[in-house]
Amino acid sequence: MATLDFYQTHAKDFFNQTINVDMQNVYQPFLENLPSGKQIISDVGCGSGRDSVFFAKQGFQVMAIDGSQNLIELAKQNHPTIDWQCLAFNEIKNQNWHNKFTGIWACASLLHVPFDELPNILNDLLETLKPNGILYASFKYGDSEREKDGRFFCDMNESRWQLVESELPNMKTLKIWQTVDNRKDRQEVWFNILLGN
């Protein structure tokens, strides 16, 4: 709950810090692997809504989900036609979204889920994908769980990911790659994953 409190309290600062970050290098592999046809994207942990707006501008139908109502309210101002939903990760399984999305975008959001809960949350998300759908997720590169400045982080690396992947029976890893933080003042390394069904 402390992590969500952080985003509720610091929504405006977080919004301003992230809304204009150029994510083109990460969008590209996602866009290239989407199935053909009409795209319905779920942006899980949408934060400032930056990526939701990008996908909407590509002509995609977008549902943007975040646990922070304050962030949703700020994000909404940029693109009212997106379907904005205030939901926690563990509430996704209760929605009637089976086979709904062609792509799930979980950029720097699932890193707030404890390692031992991650397979369950991922399997819940994967249930919402259409056949040939894809899921993108990113984590800070590392091998631990930690708290920093009032937020919980679950870091990820290749060996930790293998343990998670072994509990995702209906998916295969299409691509794993590392990137350096796109924010100009950060040098953190990110662990990126693209899954397909």
Distance between the termini: 32 Å
Helix/strand/pairing category = alpha/beta
CATH top level class name: Alpha Beta
- By CATH, the superfamily comes out as Vaccinia Virus protein VP39
Q: N-to-C SSE series?
A: HHHEHEHEEHEEEHEE
List the strand order in the largest sheet: 3-2-1-4-5-9-8
Unreliable stretches (pLDDT < 50, length at least 5) are: none
* Biggest sheet layout: 7 strands, mixed
Q: What is the CATH topology descriptor?
A: Rossmann fold
CATH architecture classification: 3-Layer(aba) Sandwich
Mean pLDDT: 92
Q: Work out the strand percent.
A: 25-35%
How much helix, percentage-wise, in residues?
25-40%
How large is the count of helical segments? 7
Q: Which value, in Å, is the CA radius of gyration?
A: 15 Å
- How many structural units, i.e. domains? 1
Number of strands: 9
**Overall body shape:** globular
Can you give a write-up of this model?
The protein is α/β, with parallel strands linked by helices and 197 residues long. It has one domain: 3-Layer(aba) Sandwich (Rossmann fold). 30% of the residues lie in helices and 29% in strands. It has helices at residues 2-9, 11-18, 24-33, 50-57, 69-76, 118-126, 158-165; strands spanning 40-44, 61-66, 83-86, 101-106, 129-140, 145-148, 151-154, 172-180, 189-196. A seven-stranded mixed sheet has the order 3-2-1-4-5-9-8. Strands 6-7 form a two-stranded antiparallel ribbon. Helix 2 packs across helix 5. The longest helix is centred in the N-terminal third of the chain and has 10 residues, at 24-33. The radius of gyration is 15 Å and the shape is globular. The model has no long low-confidence stretch (mean pLDDT 92). One of its GO terms (biological process) is methylation. InterPro entries: Methyltransf_25, SAM-dependent_MTases_sf. Keywords: Methyltransferase, Transferase. It comes from Moraxella canis. Residues 42-133 form the Methyltransferase domain.
